[in-house]
Amino acid sequence: MIVVDSNILAYLYLPCEYTTAAETFLEQDPDWAAPILWRSEFRNILAGYLRRKTISFEQADSLQKEAESLLEGAEFEVDSRSVLELVRDSDCSAYDCEFVALSIKLETKLLTIDKKLLRAFPQWAIALTAV
Fold it and tell me: Can you give the pTM of this predicted structure?
């Protein structure tokens, strides 16, 4: 199992330079997990695509459902104190620290390309481009 941040999910479903890497990683390790926050972040990413008219409403709805299906049974609550401790000890947002807190809780790595997370939490965060 590996925790994935919302951007990794976006790369999987919205074609970009990281899509192939995300697809390859999913094939190698299909057991992905995320804090419940991922849903809101992913919807926000889709909202940007909708507003730029890059995808239709129907496509956005379909992508959200597909991503929810991928993470079904692998969405977790995180402890607020744990998140706040990570915020205190880094310059990362509380949103980003939720993913790290889940990685710690599950004793697994966090897959990301977020440079702040990679710098602040090298023991937990691994770069998509490095796998």
Answer: 0.95
